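Workshop exercise sheet. Pairs work together: one partner reads the sequence aloud, the other fills in the structure field after running the prediction. Swap roles for the next sheet.
Pair: D.N. / O.F.
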Amino acid sequence: MNTSELETKRISLRPIEETDYPVLFKWRNEFRFLSLFSAKREVISFESFIKEIKREFERNRHLQFIVSRKDTNKPIGTIFSFNFNPVDGYVFVNIYIDSEEENKGYGVEGIVLFVYYLFMFFPVRKICFEIFSYNNLSLSTMQNGSRYGFCEEGRFKEHRFFNGKHYDVFRFAIFRNSTDKISKLLERFKRNYSGWQD
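Structure field:
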């Protein structure tokens, strides 16, 4: 599998390019992104965003892809890996889908594609996801994916301060021994989409 094969029937993933910076900047400054998908809290200028994304790749950003709908070729989100540790064999992943496209299953497909790609081409045995306790959609998605190997590893009590209150952070993971399950799910997504269900 190479990056040109990172697709299902409905979406494709491709590495980010500089031409994607305007839409990435737009998403990065949205309240929904800042509240649900980022440790950052402040809105920044485009010039500061360019410096920020370059700095993140220098520090701990591993890979980043654009999620696009195949029927429109429109970017609808981004998925990236970070804190890649080849010695211990783990990496963290985060995904963001534009609010206009949420609740349509694109996030599930993006995660499955990216997880399979990471297991195929990088020395990772575990891929981790951290989700804030008030992010009900993402929590439900991970919990529903348990039959395919996604499991809750822990819960960090009152680890996230948001909107004047502390919230828990859940950590989920999927291990390399679940690759066969992910592969079968991916093949189904290449034919049609039915979420986690058979």
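Discussion prompt: The first strand starts at residue 11 and ends at 15. What would you look at next?
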